Amino acid sequence: MLVVGAAVSQEVTKPLTKEEIKALSAKGDIPVSKALRCGLFFAEDDFKKPPLNTMFVFNRTMPLPSPWSCPTTNKRIFRKGKDELKKFIDVCKNIWLGIESHIVYTKGSIYKDRKAKGLTLGDDICIVLKDTHKVPDVPFQKGGRTWYQNGLKFGMFTNICENKKWIDNRVRIKEGICCKDGRHIPC
């Protein structure tokens, strides 16, 4: 079971409840400069590439796995090896496992006013792409090439101690998102 606000030490085996997901949006007690955070980012399938753009960063801040404390750098953690890195990644990866089944593009919007207008979760994501990142259409043409023909993917990333770089959790949504003028369309 996931305990929101605490480091997750065991794998999530069932979807999170709406209340648990909502709790992830509540501001945490730990300052960002001393915390671990999780975020959803638009990203390539290639895990070696940095995330493309922010989709959503959870407000909930969580303690770093023991014995770590801030300040620390991603590089320092990487040097300690895969087992140490896994401690950090597992916190957000387990949240991903708990929310992934809730990500259905055709379900109603997560915002009441949009849902009342018939908008969907897919529309919510396409609105972020259009309004925040100025990408109204996916796939799109640029430089004589079609980009994201099968839709744009997103995945979970981990941030430690407010470092500039986010760590890829190596998980992606199975079905990419396609948009036309800021609204979800089937790929």
Q: Given the helix and strand composition, which structural class is it?
A: alpha+beta
Largest sheet: 4 strands, antiparallel
Average pLDDT figure: 89
The poorly predicted ranges are 1-10
Q: What is the 3D shape?
A: globular
Round the Cα radius of gyration to an integer and report it. 17 Å
Helix content: 25-40%
The helix count comes to 5
Q: Strand arrangement, largest sheet? A: 2-1-5-6
**How many structural units, i.e. domains?**
1
**What order do the SSEs take from the amino end to the carboxyl end, as H and E?**
HEEHHHHEEEEEE
Question: What percent of residues are in strands?
Answer: 15-25%
Distance between the first and last residues' Cα: 34 Å
Number of DSSP E strands: 8
